[in-house]
Structure formats: structure tokens, C-alpha cells
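Protocol step 4 of 5: obtain the predicted structure for the target chain.
Materials: sequence only (see below). No template structures provided, no constraints applied. The aim of this step is simply to have a reference model before the mutagenesis design in step 5. Sequence pasted as it appears in the construct record:
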Amino acid sequence: MTRDKKLVRALRGEPQEIPPVWLMRQAGRYLPEYRSTRSLAGDFLSLCYTPDLAAEVTLQPIRRYDFDAAILFADILLVPHALGADLSFEPGEGPRLSTVTDSASLSSLKPVEEIHLTLAPVYETLRILSGALPAGTALIGFAGAPWTVATYMVAGRGTPDQGPAHALRTADPVTFDALIQLLTEATISYLSAQIEAGAEVVKLFDSWAGSLEGEAFDRYAIEPIVKIVASLKSRWPEVPVIVFPRGAGSRYAGFARTTGADCVALDSGVDARWAAERVQVDGCVQGNLDPGHLVTGGPALVEETCRIVRELSGGPHVFNLGHGVTPDADPANVHRILEAIRR
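Step 4 output (C-alpha cells):
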């Protein structure tokens, strides 16, 4: 059944006349049903850790839009939380974490084998979804890539330039490399457990890959992903892996070939024609409509959607955004995207 699902066929390299569609952050604050369910949980972290509610918000966009895939509702910072970092989400300000800035704070984290007690509700959410999704809808699990997760752990919050992580990797590479290694092992274990719980596809979000250059990009964006993909493929060779190295620019070319990923997700800054010539030659690409079009709508939304589909029609393509749906998006504009693609 999994092999026949539209998304999985694309990820295995099959071009399709009508590409499969799902959207990053397709479950979120732009949907009134999401806001209602979140109010029941009380706070964001409780929503992630309450399987019935997390499954419900995962299913809401599937009911509304009939996407070709559902993505687990969770957060990339659940892994550091499971490793022992304090984590909270401040309304309007984003996440706050206890920091890892030296060997002592790194040593205070838990070993990888202990993360699953905290993450058990996430696996239960996946089991619920496996039984609740329509037969043709693929189930995507995910995690943050080690570099991106490390930037939050070092700074204790999101930063505009990931400066604290860059400073630590330069000043204390031993500690920083040990943190990356710990997160690599934890991510392998976490995604493995997600697959065992029912995930049919997994995705790695390296949201801050674009702040790395040259040798640092190779060391912190590519090498950990190579290890993660190879480990997952050794156990589950049939489970496709999507990787999103946002902001990678010219480094998108060859990224799938180098890392072993089945699909590379493109940010909105990548020209679709360039991607067809330089990235899609190595396999499936995903993307990459600017999420701002979901706010402004109009003819430009349809024109740009159709252009992306047309430019990437020569190979395997999963239609998506170049980043996540924003809270101010108009839900009606998502329908317009689907009509443009599927008509």
C-alpha cells in the first residue's frame, strides 16, 4: 500500500502528470479548527505531547484539503527537550531553551537511549494517524537536522544569524562537534522510532543550513545528514528521506547525490528552471512556492503555481512551499493552489 501512494511514487523517482501536494506547516494557526484545538491543550508543548490532540491537528488539513500527505504535528525542539534541555514556548516570542555552551552543560544532557520516554507521546500520535488517514495519504515523520537544532541549543532561542552557534564552533570546536555528534545519534534513534510507529516517509529540516559556507557547510550540514540517511537506509531501505537545506543556494546542486537523500526540498529563492537542470537530475525535488502568495492570493498565486509545476514537470516533483504556511495565510488560497494543480 505504501509503495502505491502518490507521494511515495514521486519520492522513488516517478514523474507524474499531476504532482503530489502537501504544504509545510499545513496544520497551523491559519486554520480556525487548529486554533480551537490548540486552546484545548493550553499551550504549544502540551499540544505536541497529547497524542489525541496532536493527531487531530495533523488530520485537520487532510480533511479540509485532501493533501497527498500528512506530516506529524510536533516540533524540531522536542529532541533537545528529550535530552534534558528546559524548553518553553513564549507567545509571540518563540522557543526558549536552557543553553549548551561548554563541556559541563553538554555533559548534563541525557544519553540518547533515554530520549524515548519523553518522546513516547509522539510515537503514539503516529500510531493513531496510521489507522486514521485515508488509504492514499502518506504519513511523514520528521526531525530537525543537527546543525539547526544545535543553533537553538547554543543560543537558547532562535537568532537572525545563528551567531552564537558559529562563535562556539570556532572557539570550542571539541564541545560543538560533540554536540553535533550527540544530536546526530539522537536524530537517528528518533526517526527510527517514528518509522517503527508508522511513518512512511521522513524529512530532515535544516532550516539554518544557509548560514554555513564552504568547509563549514560540508562539516555541519552535509556530514551529519550523510550519517543519518545512511543509518536509516541500512535498516529501512524502502523508506524515502526528504532533506530541506534551506538557503543552500548553489549547494542544492548535488545535495541529493552527496547525502543519499531521495528528495531535496527547495526554498523559495531557488529558480525552478535552474533546479530542473541542476537538482532534479539527481532525483525528486520538492517545492517551492513563496508562502507569501497564500496571503496575497490573486492571479499571481495561480500563475506562479502553474509555472513551478510546468518547469519541474520533466522529472519527479512534489509540490510544496519554499517555507511553511504563515499564520496570516488565507485558507481559501490553499484551495486555489490545489485547483490550479489538479484541474
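Step 4 remarks: The beta strands are 69-71, 87-90, 94-97, 138-144, 201-206, 241-245, 263-265, 284-289, 317-321. The chain has a mean pLDDT of 97.
Proceed to step 5.
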